[in-house]
Amino acid sequence: MRPADPRSLVGTSSAPSTVSWTVDDTILYAIAVGAGRDPRRSELDLTVEDSSAGALRALPSMAAALCLRTPSLLRSLPLGDHPVVHAHQTVELDGPVPPAGVAVLESSVTAVHDTGRGAIVVTTTTATTPGGDRLFVATSQAYVIGAGGFGGAPPPRAERAERAPDQEVEMPTWPEQALLYRLTGDRNLLHADPVAARASGFPGPILHGLATLGTATRLLVHELAEGDPRLVRGLGGRFSGTVTPGDRLRLRIWRNAAGAEFEVLGPDGSPLLKEGDVRLVGHSV
After folding, report:
1. CA-to-CA distance for 88 and 156, rounded, in angstroms?
2. How many C-beta atoms lie closer than 10 Å to residue 245's C-beta?
3. What whole-number distance in Å separates Cα of residue 112 and Cα of residue 148?
4. What is the pLDDT of residues 187-200, one digit of tens each?
5. Domain residues of the chain, as ranges?
6. What is the DSSP string of 54-101?
7. Which H or E run includes 212?
8. How many CB atoms lie under 10 A from the CB of residue 209?
9. Of 116, 129, 198, 253, which is most buried, counting CB atoms within 10 Å of its CB?
10. What Å distances lie between residue 165 and 64, 96, 148, 254, 274, CA to CA?
11. Which residues belong to the active site?
12. pLDDT tens profile 218-230
């Protein structure tokens, strides 16, 4: 049973957890978000170690996937039987994600917001090296359906660009993408088993929200950072719809002084990822 006031969950934290990843994990992640599928782009630096393109580089969005390798703080919270969906994700990086490494992750509930119909539980995870240097901070918002109405404040919303996008990029997915992406850490059967998907109210398996964010991030690296993922220092977005693997999506980009705002649209033009932001080192419009 959930607490009478979900705001009492703020401050709940997890014990430190150590995660490690290898060059193979970094390559698998990049392939799972589309690297190597576009003949117009060379992505050897994302998919092959020590290739003619140089040393392997990790996509910055992989940081969010690494957080799934730790015990879930969210699942330990007393949220009752309310359905929970991943609503928003951001990652702030102190530098490039190493293509192989070890990190100590600690998570805590940092905010709870009231939307009326539901509650938004904000969990912040900090990753540091074993020596104590910070690698990244990942913030996840979970929407707890039916848990609202406790009198809390709604989540803040940032102002967005009110003009036509500076560019639009085709963003294909493919039928087996969810089966591949789940190997990066999220094994929820909703993304793989048609029976489990139908039990959750979907006609079939849906793509992970983090796979959509990762695929968008890979394209943004090409469009804004000349293909160099090491220049990204922040990214995130709000998940507002579901993607069926194989859908052809559209990435819309609004450039700004920090990097860009972006959103992802479905085949019918409906927004599937909204309020996206990417921040780059030394970027100028």
Report:
1. 13
2. 21
3. 10
4. 999 999 999 999 98
5. 6-280
6. BS----TTHHHHHHTTS--HHHHS--TT--EEEEEEEEEESSPPPSSE
7. helix 209-225
8. 25
9. 253
10. 27, 28, 35, 5, 13
11. 186, 191
12. 999 999 999 999 9
130-155 per-position pLDDT tens digit: 999 999 999 999 999 888 988 888 88
What's the CA gap between 227 and 241, in Å, rounded? Answer: 28
Q: Give me the sign of the Cα torsion angle 15, 94, 262, 246.
A: negative
The half-sphere exposure of 33 on its side-chain side, counting CA atoms within 13 A, is 29
Of 186, 173, 200, 24, nearest to 99 by C-alpha is 24
Q: Is 110:25 a contact under the CB 8 Å cutoff?
A: no
Angle among Cα 219, 221, 225 to the nearest 5 degrees reads 140
Strand segments, DSSP code E, in the chain are 17-21, 84-93, 101-114, 118-128, 134-145, 167-172, 232-239, 248-255, 259-265, 271-280
Task: Please name the fold of domain 6-280.
Answer: Thiol Ester Dehydrase; Chain A (3.10.129)
Quote the tokens at residue 98.
Answer: 């190493």
Sequence-distant (6+) residues with CB within 8 A of 269 are none
Distance between CA atoms of 139 and 83, rounded to whole angstroms?
A: 20
Cα–Cα distance for residue pair 111/190, rounded to 1 Å: 27
Write the CB contacts of 124 (distance below 8 Å, at least 6 apart in sequence): 107, 108, 110, 137, 138, 139, 140
**Model-wide pTM > 0.90:** yes
The partner residues of 200 in beta bridges, in order of sequence, read none
